Amino acid sequence: MKRNYYLLTIICFLFLAACDKKKDRVFDESPTVRLNAAVANAQNILRSKPNGWIFQYFPGANAPYGGVNLFVNFTSATDVNMQADYTTGNITSSYKVYPGAGPVLTFDTYNSVLDYFALPGVLSNWGASDTGLGGDIEFLVVKANADSVILKGRKRNTTLVMVPVPGDAASVPALIANYRTSFNRFYNANSFRFVTATKTTALSWGTYNGLMAGSINYSFRPTDTGVDGFQQYTVDGITFKQLTFKAATATYTKGYYANADESLKLVIL
Questions:
Q1: Could you tell me if 107 and 80 are in contact, meaning their C-beta atoms sit under 8 angstroms apart?
Q2: Which residues are registered as beta bridge partners of 257?
Q3: What is the residue-averaged pLDDT of the chain?
Q4: Are 56 and 221 within 8 A, CB to CB?
Q5: pLDDT tier, 29 (very low <50, low <70, confident <90, very high otherwise)
Q6: pTM of the model
Q7: Which of helix, strand or coil describes residue 158?
Q8: Checking CA distances to 204, which of 89, 93, 192, 195 falls within 20 to 30 Å?
Q9: Beta strand spans in 59-182 (E)
Q10: Which domains are seen in the chain, by residue range?
Q11: What's the rounded Cα separation, in Å, for the pair 258 and 264?
Q12: Cα–Cα distance between 217 and 67 in angstroms, integer?
């Protein structure tokens, strides 16, 4: 019996030692090595999409100004091409991914498509005279995989998302054109109102693309099918984030955006 006890003790000791060695192997790499690997992974992911990425960009802390779509293609280890829904510009500049608190993506030379949102208000004519719309141009890469890249602005701490541009290369110009049509439809509206079965809420323009109902801010990004909120919103007890554009009717002569069951409408005025 005593012999069996000793044998069991030895087996347990060997098992625990093996576990410790396995654990040691996991942490064999230094923090620097792991960080450099994360930087390399982020760089590879960014360059892995031949059509590039749709950068769902909201300037400012907590996104008070509405959002735009930037079409970002990392064409080499140093070059990036940008287009957007709000402008017809097609600009190539440089970028890099470097180690910081994690992988950091910085657009390190001037690109008017992105830097417009970081200009002082005296130059952009939006927002405060010194900070303007408060757009970030440098981001911590929180997560990077084939489906999405999650970024956090280093100045404003706003979490932003990039998703792959769908389709093949031949379909990209039409996709961007659809986004521009959607942006212009939203941006050029005189105003909006929310309509539910029991309530109508008047909205006015805030700064840039932001909408206001009194002191409540609604921040939308036009999409190729409608609009997408920076976060979920609740109006008259109805919670929503994405709304689909519906063509004009006799009642809503400029069209409207609606949730799936049309219990909530964002009517264009």
A1: yes
A2: 245, 266
A3: 92
A4: yes
A5: confident
A6: 0.88
A7: coil
A8: 89
A9: 68-74, 79-84, 91-94, 96-99, 103-106, 138-144, 149-153, 159-164
A10: 43-172 (2.40.128), 189-268 (no CATH)
A11: 6
A12: 13
